[in-house]
Design brief:
heterodimer, A: mainly alpha, Cytochrome C3, 3-stranded antiparallel beta sheet, 5 helices, elongated, B: alpha+beta
């Protein structure tokens, strides 16, 4: 048995697997950090609600996508596809913008039904929640 | 040799038995009983003390009838639409609006050791319109949009939806679906089909 420096091709193999290992580690940390709760795609909106004395808003994607295609909200209503980038005021909704484009007592129930949307647990952080199998990675 | 095989088989059985005794996440989080979907009042998100928990529809009521999957909403949404289980409205402004379905596959070949990615426009345009992705997120010109798996994992490009509302990023082979060994002729990066 001889002690020598590892061959160059062995070094290259180790480096070869590094991106794969890094991606695996990233996946493991991302998907195990949050406890599984909520339904996949549920969005918590709490930038303003609790400061104004209301429960946080829970938006269920699953409920809405049974009834409407993505383009309805993300084109016609104008919701940007990034949690937190839509600056929604309750006055906008009452004036018929954002949620208020449907929640106007014509297409869906109106904005006077406060607690149906403002139904979250106090102290929730805004963002998209994962689901039964993933917590959903960082930026959501 | 035979003893080693026997030991491994025994270990596998013990492992399976131990795995069965671990309660599923749903059982821990949903006191009402195990299920595919958490009820509204026990999902850790809705306030059980609020009035809405008795008014809102539980996911199980609606999603139980749709084609089932193992991840995300436990629903294969594309099949649900294609096989007519659901008919989501394409527009709230125009009653005659028809979805502009584009049947065009895009192959992304630079995927390191993983199988190549086949992007089906058809499945996406049944839900979305061109402008939802083009030209701001993805350029229509082939090869003009450069991104990698790290971007997707960080919530950019495909990751805008996949991992948030569309099927999650644990399902590697839904996207990485074309093995190089199965192709008779090598394909070019971003080759368009159909």
């Amino acid at each position: 048995m001889t002690f020598s420096r590892p061959h160059t091709h062995q070094l290259r193999t180790a480096r070869h697997y590094l991106p794969g290992i890094m991606i695996m580690l990233a996946l493991i940390t991302l998907f195990t950090s949050l406890p599984a709760s909520a339904e996949y795609g549920d969005v918590v909106l709490n930038n303003r609600a609790e400061k104004a004395g209301m429960r946080p808003v829970i938006f269920p994607h699953w409920f809405h996508r049974i009834r409407f295609r993505c383009r309805v909200c993300h084109t016609e209503v104008g919701f940007e596809m990034r949690a937190g980038s839509n600056n929604i005021l309750m006055s906008d909704i009452i004036d018929g913008r954002f949620c208020g484009k449907c929640h106007n007592n014509k297409i869906a129930w109106g904005p006077e039904n406060c607690p149906i949307c403002h139904s979250g647990l106090p102290g929730l952080e805004s963002g998209v929640r994962g689901g039964a199998t993933t917590g959903g990675p960082g930026r959501w | 040799m035979k003893r080693r095989i026997a030991e491994r088989v025994l270990a596998a059985f013990i492992g399976l038995w131990v795995a069965q005794t671990v309660p599923a996440v749903e059982e821990v989080f949903a006191p009402e009983g195990p299920g595919q979907w958490l009820p509204i009042k026990a999902d850790g998100l809705h306030d059980p003390a609020g009035p809405a928990v008795n008014q809102l529809q539980n996911p199980a009521e609606a999603l139980f009838y749709l084609p089932s999957a193992f991840s995300g909403n436990k629903v294969r949404w594309v099949e649900a639409i294609q096989e007519g289980y659901i008919e989501p409205l394409p527009s709230i402004l125009d009653n005659d609006y028809q979805m502009q379905v584009l049947d065009l596959d895009v192959m992304r070949t630079r995927t390191a050791e993983l199988p190549m990615v086949l992007f089906p426009h058809k499945k996406h345009t049944e839900w979305l319109e061109c402008g939802n992705c083009h030209e701001w997120l993805f350029k229509s010109k082939r090869g003009a949009t450069r991104f990698g798996m790290f971007d997707v994992l960080a919530g950019e490009y495909c990751g805008r939806c996949h991992g948030a509302v569309a099927f999650p990023l644990t399902e590697c082979f839904y996207c990485h679906s074309v093995r190089r060994s199965e192709l008779k002729t090598p394909v070019k990066e971003l080759e368009l089909h159909k």
